[in-house]
Design goal:
The protein has about 325 residues and is an alpha/beta fold. The protein is about 45% helix and about 15% strand. β7, α7 and β8 (about 220-225) form a beta-alpha-beta unit. α1 (about 20-35) packs parallel to α9 (about 265-285) and α2 (about 45-50) packs across α3. The longest helix has 22 residues, at about 145-165. 6-O-phosphono-beta-D-fructofuranose (F6P) binds near residues 130, 131, 132, 176 and 260.
């Protein structure tokens, strides 16, 4: 039987994502509404181990819904990967009488949470916050929508130069293990080819597509490459392709961390608000070891184990469409 929850802590962990602040706000305000005491943990699991845990109230989360990054700061903690580190974290939470935690982050964050809750009796509920959108069980993660809007805007700008100079641009977007950002950016910006970690497009195929474009009097091209492309990043692919089609017309742009910052989109603010509200309700209903997600516009609760270990595939239909529309 779960003990009654009176005090909860909230933290962000892993890569920051636009909309994390909106989620923190929703957690604090929903929990306060239900009469809970809420604590903020600074810098994720590192802060938990170091005891950087303080009360947070509704006023503290005013004027943050529109801000990118995370007011709670974030980190990727090596110490929390160790049993000793997790024991210290447990002692810090227990000393303050914290009954439950809400973790906002991605795969690494929930992996840590799952191990922790199996070792120590403090329930955790997760909120998916990562621009990568690579968590099983939720249609979207917080930050994904903003990041693809940012990336598309960047590609639109680069397209002006590509068009003006008749150039071929290789543009690299984030996504080490998943191609959601690359696929959405590529479709939204009308790219000729999209290279994702999940599929193996060869340099030869890229060259064939470019040659077809030339036959159709297509003078410039944009190719989107996911950071985790199986045939190398944008620089590597550009080097090989330009050796065949000519170096003078080829350029590379890596969007990098530009696509992780900035004000969250309306979609991310709404998503984060719903997930924050849903996470507190989950804890109050006695849930633990679950990630709150949204499927078909409904709140769902997915075991951490599934969210972390099950593969969220790219839609084959959307992949097929991207090829047809780029012709
Ligand atoms: O997980 C989010 C993400 O932005 C990935 O897309 C990217 O590969 C990684 O984080 C970069 O991490 P860091 O900011 O630590 O370099």
């Amino acid at each position: 039987m779960n003990k009654e929850i009176k005090k909860i802590a909230v933290f962000t962990s892993g890569g920051d994502a636009p909309g994390m602040n909106a989620a923190v706000r929703a957690v604090v305000r929903t929990a306060t509404y239900h009469g809970l005491d809420v604590y903020r943990i600074q810098r994720g699991y590192s802060g938990m181990i170091d005891g950087h845990i303080e009360p947070i109230g509704t006023k503290d989360v005013g004027n943050i819904i529109h801000r990118g990054g995370t007011i709670l700061k974030t980190s990727r903690s090596e110490e929390f990967r160790t049993k000793e580190g997790r024991k210290i974290a447990y002692e810090k939470l227990s000393a303050l009488g914290i009954d439950a935690c809400i973790a906002i982050g991605g795969n690494g964050t929930f992996t840590g949470a799952e191990i922790f809750t199996n070792e120590h009796n403090i329930p955790f509920v997760g909120i998916p916050g990562t621009i990568d959108n690579d968590l099983y069980g939720t249609d979207n993660t917080i930050g994904f929508d903003t990041s693809i809007n940012t990336a598309i805007e960047a590609v639109d700008r680069i397209r002006d130069t590509a068009d003006s100079h008749d150039r071929l641009f290789f543009i690299e977007v984030m996504g080490r293990h998943a191609g959601f950002i690359a696929l959405a950016t590529g479709i939204g910006s009308g790219a000729e080819t999209i290279i994702v970690p999940e599929s193996k497009t060869s340099e030869e195929e890229i060259i064939a597509t470019l040659k077809k474009g030339v036959e159709r009097k297509k003078l410039f091209s944009v190719i989107i490459v996911a950071e985790g492309s199986p045939i190398g990043g944008a620089h590597k692919i550009a080097e090989k392709v330009s050796a065949v089609i000519g170096k003078d017309k080829t350029r590379v742009a890596v969007i990098g961390h530009l696509q992780r910052g900035g004000a969250p989109s309306a979609v991310d603010r709404m998503l984060a608000s719903r997930l924050g509200y849903g996470a507190v309700n989950a804890l109050l209903a006695g849930q633990s070891n679950v990630m709150v997600g949204i499927q078909d516009r409904n709140i769902v609760y997915i075991p951490f184990h599934d969210a972390i270990n099950k593969k969220k595939p790219l839609s084959q239909d959307i992949l097929d469409m991207s090829v047809i529309l780029s012709q």
